[in-house]
Amino acid sequence: MRLRTLILILTSILVADTTRFGTARGGDESEMLVGFDFLVAINQWVPFSTNETCQRRLLDVRPRAEYDAGHIEGATWVDVKQARAIASRPGGLTDRDAWFDWLAPLGIHNRSVVRIISDDRQLEAARIWWLLRYLGVQNVGLVNGNFSLWKAQRRPVTQIVEEIKPITFPVDFQTDRLATREDVFSALKEKDARIVDARTAEEWTGKELRAKRGGHIPDACRLEWVNLVDNDGRFLSLDKLKARIKAAGIKPGEPVIAHCQSGGRASVDAFVFEMLGYPTRNYYLSWSDWGNADDTPITTDEKLAEPLQAPTAAEPSPKPFMVEYYYKCKWGHADEFLALFERNHLPVLRERIKGGDILRVGMTKPRIHTGEADRWDYRVTIEFRDAASAFNPALDEPIKQRLFPDQVKYRAEEQRRFSILEAHTDLPIDAVDLDKPVTSP
Fold this sequence. Notes:
441 residues; alpha/beta; Oxidized Rhodanese, domain 1; Alpha-Beta Plaits; five-stranded parallel β-sheet; four-stranded parallel β-sheet; 16 helices; 15% strand; elongated; disordered N terminus
């Protein structure tokens, strides 16, 4: 029974996350991108841990001082600077011994399920995602949101740093994920892949020089990484991502080679392309290689240098969904019901307002009762973001676990709240636009 309940909860969360963030390659969004609530729900069942027997790893790619000041329980710190140093030196991307040494402290093995969190709008998280996939780690994904957003939502953090037993991971370079300078030359000649530039407009035009030569690769298109992620580190919706890609001149399913200056920003683009099913390679050495070579073609025309504008056509927004909840209390228990509601249920609703899936909550009570048959004591009106948010009880569970550590007491009081009711009714409703002309039948 417990396993069945878990499956129902996780399925509900996955459906909700897929609606918001899009579907990853393979049809299961959790393969690449997970929201906070899914992370909390699954972590309660099989906690993230640094124990070498645990198959689940949560990696924190923030600077060490920030990790030490507070991190998600069970998260393992990643030395991003070391990874960048290995990858950027000559021959570093194929230095098996160096990557053995870098991977070992992470405790990752062949069966590991790895998720990564950062605090820089996915920049370093995407870099580590791409490097791990390139090194042969199969199940790697990102947490959809900055660590600072996690804290802002008052989710739990710890300063406890667990020791981790190093594990030797069998590095297996996935060369089909990497593009080299020669691959870019070939793509320009054969026109069998689009070159996608994730850098700024200033770098694109050569006004900002970060190599011997500035500018961009001829026939490339520009899709700056910041246009794919919001300020809280959450990827744009599926429809918006597709619109941004279309506006950049990239056809659906077209093979792409992403690049930037040194692999990080291109990894954000690569993550989105791969999530949407595009055959994707990362020219990881990027402009630090192309811009410092003497024989590479470069142009400084300003075509596509402007920041991407929002699509001109208005994108459909979710239709709000309203429900009225009527509560009829047993005689003499109306005040007790209200106290329990305010103590245990209202805080959950307020957290969901912060999360955006509830727009508003209101409560009313009648001044007089006209008769016992149709009596009700409290009416709660909730405006949800959409119908899916109204009928997904799994969204409440992680919040309840976080707000009420004493679950035995919490569930006893919730049971008491419903035991003092004679009846309660849930009634979906629609607003009527009185300004809209009414047409006669």
